[in-house]
Amino acid sequence: MKVSASSLRKGSVVDVDGKLYVVLQAQNIHPGKGTPVTQLDMRRISDGVKISERYRTTETVEKAFVDERSYNFLYQDGEGYHFMNPDNYDQVVVSEDVVGDLAAYLQDGMSVMLKIHNDIAIALELPQRVSLEVAETEPVVKGQTASGSYKPALLVNGVRTMVPTYITAGTKIVVMTEDGSYVERAKD
After folding, report:
1. Are strands 111-117 and 67-76 parallel, antiparallel or unpaired?
2. What structural domains does the chain harbor?
3. What pLDDT, on the 0 to 100 scale, is given for residue 4?
């Protein structure tokens, strides 16, 4: 199925010259002069080779037919990351190179979308936002305003992010899984 290059997102699977690639990063670039382009950083599924391609936003790319199913994360061991289909309780092991830097955001029982091609998991899509606890952060400095200023924080999963000055260690916050950026204080 042909889709415009500008509609591709992280985790999309495309067919380029008969080989399957998973999109690692998609960026739409609109220069002041000239044609807008879409920069795609992709990983070849068969051997893990990473490539970077540029397409005009009007160009079309062949999107591969991939089965998307909801799975729950169970655990990680030497084999890889184990997921379970909540409908029929089938388990799938996903290799470390497929999960990549998203591993930091995986939590027990988390529902994720696995993209499967020929019974092999080729891509993983997490929920857009997750709640995490702040492990450590700098203390509040008297005189800093409550809004507009941020300070560095380390989350329990090892990810560093910037949080507002009123956030203290032990506070649960919501972060974006795409880039680890702070969204809001968790409501639970």
Report:
1. antiparallel
2. 2-63 (2.30.30.30), 67-125 (2.40.50.140), 129-185 (2.40.50.140)
3. 85
